[in-house]
Amino acid sequence: LRIAVLASGRGSNLRALLEARDRGELDAQFVGLFSDKPESGAVRTAREHGIPVVAAKPRDFASRAEHDEFLFSRIEAVQPDLIVCAGYMRLISEAAVRRTTGRMINIHPSLLPNYPGLDTHARALAAGDGEHGASVHVVIPELDAGPVLAQVRVPVLAGDNADTLAQRVLAREHALLVETVKAIADGRLRLGADVIGYRDAAL
Ligand code: GRF
């Protein structure tokens, strides 16, 4: 399976995928790491693993659409079977999302449809939720709103703050993302506008 990864941060989800590949658990070729943050840990990790990197700062582009066009034309050029957003912290324009035809997934630190967007751990704590978690979903133009492929539930513990909860969730995200990508790699899970049953409106 040819996988392109989009990431902006430390890259622990990227690393989890690479470690699964190195353990022989995941039959995948990583065809590129695409980032808005050239100095990020994810970029460094990709380079350490010999994965081609395309990093482009949004401020070097006149608009969001041009920055997306730069990245997504280069993503298309490596012909991925799957695009994984692993901590990509930019809103992706509708035009760019449509180009991925239901083959882009995202890992989000909440039990969707609860808490789309940012600061999910603080919001779950503020709501007094007894559990929180993470979701892998198909990316559609609306933020954090596409069909959920897999979820993991994580207990909220007494004395938790946003950091301790985020840490507990992040540890479980790695296995969730790896298991979902493995299912896609071995055909147990099929993606694509046709399979997900998207009408044109969504994609
Ligand atoms: C993860 O919590 C992910 O769910 C969210 O951003 C974080 C990325 O972490 N989208 P990392 O860069 O993979 O360590």
TrEMBL record:
The record marks 144 as: Raises pKa of active site His. It comes from the Bacteria. One of its GO terms (biological process) is 'de novo' IMP biosynthetic process. Keywords: Purine biosynthesis, Transferase. NCBIfam families: PurN (TIGR00639). Belongs to the GART family. This is Phosphoribosylglycinamide formyltransferase. It comes from Arenimonas oryziterrae DSM 21050 = YC6267.
